[in-house]
Design brief:
alpha/beta; 9 strands; seven-stranded parallel beta sheet
């Protein structure tokens, strides 16, 4: 098996810098768009045959060094007791929004085996399909980010409604965060037991918080979830990603993940030094650079690899998800560039 990704997670020497792409199974691929013509997003997520097909597409097409399960961070939230829809042009809509203690108390903690069997079945099938090829990554939304969606009921530019509840009714917010933390902890554990070989926690909206508020309202919960997973599965790498983490990077490290995902606003070398070079890092190309001509894209790739300095523990990725309008050929070229430019002599 190509284990370069897992070796990098563990800060071991690799033959080259492994690369995968956040949202690598997505609308920039015609093969994915073809499936969308016959099945909506949630149907794909809940139908193992479709989930498996879409998950494998970037492995076949891009030659990435890891597959990531095709799903959504809100999948377990629906099973907590909220109605979930994806509306074209609007994104996810959760109903009714959670704004009272009664609403929190109505939420349950789903049993993955009983409530999310389609996810676990997809993982088991994928492990068979990927045997001898590349590792499979599972994922969850982090507590703060999921709370933002659950309180607002939809996507927001600033999640001011969630932050308002956080400040005005901290007892409600805390109760919700505790319930989400328990949900994602058992969900991540179930994914690993089903066969994923690494798990990533997406905390996309935690970058909206000040240092003080991140420390108080977000960090304790993601730290608890990561600790739960690491105690049960000490050999399984855990990746933690925040979009907009520049001002809280040192605090983010306290969550205890094996790998820290960096967005494109970081200089990779400076960020890694700030982390003490004691943890693996993932990132951090701006997704929009994939619209550059390939000769210019190559310069950007080279710059990130140079900043990584060939140290063990770098996983090349974008600083956020790949954009739907991205030229397919540039995504393919990116993976080829990383492999070629980082390959060590004799490997």
């Amino acid at each position: 098996m190509n284990d370069q990704f897992l070796k990098a997670c563990r800060m071991q020497e690799t033959d080259y810098t492994p690369v995968w792409i956040m949202r690598q199974a997505g609308r920039y691929l015609q093969e994915y768009r073809d499936i969308q013509k016959t099945a909506d997003f949630l149907t794909v997520c809940k139908t193992p045959d479709l989930t498996v097909d879409v998950t494998l597409q970037p492995v076949r097409i891009l030659d990435v060094d890891a597959a990531i399960l095709f799903s959504d961070i809100l999948t377990p939230v629906e099973k907590m007791g909220m109605k979930l829809q994806f509306i074209k042009g609007k994104g996810p809509v959760l109903d009714p929004p959670v704004t009272s203690m009664q609403a929190v108390e109505r939420l349950g903690v789903p049993d993955p085996e009983d409530d999310l069997p389609f996810v676990l079945e997809s993982i088991r099938i994928l492990r068979g399909e990927l045997e001898g090829k590349v590792p499979l990554i599972g994922f969850c939304g982090a507590p703060f980010t999921l709370a933002c969606y659950m309180i607002e009921g939809e996507t927001s530019k600033d999640y001011s409604g969630a932050k308002r509840l956080m400040f005005q009714a901290p007892h409600i917010f805390t109760a919700l965060m505790e319930k989400i933390t328990e949900t994602i902890s058992v969900y991540a554990d179930a994914q690993i037991r089903a066969g994923v070989q690494a798990v990533q926690f997406f905390d996309t909206w935690a970058g909206l918080l000040s240092r003080k508020d991140y420390s108080r309202y977000a960090l304790p919960y993601i730290k608890k979830a990561i600790s739960y997973v690491k105690k049960k599965h000490p050999k399984v790498p855990v990746i933690y990603y925040i979009n907009g983490s520049a001002t809280i990077l040192d605090l983010m490290q306290k969550a205890g993940s094996t790998v820290i995902g960096l967005d494109w606003r970081h200089d990779l070398d400076t960020a890694w030094q700030q982390l003490g070079n004691k943890v693996a890092v993932q990132g951090n190309l701006d997704p929009c650079t994939l619209f550059l001509p390939q000769d210019e894209l190559k310069k950007r790739v080279r710059d990130i690899l140079k900043k990584a300095g060939g140290q063990p523990g770098h996983i090349f990725n974008l600083g956020h998800g790949i954009l739907p309008a991205t030229p397919r050929e540039n995504a393919i070229a990116l993976v080829e560039m990383v492999h070629k430019m980082s390959r060590k002599k004799g490997a």
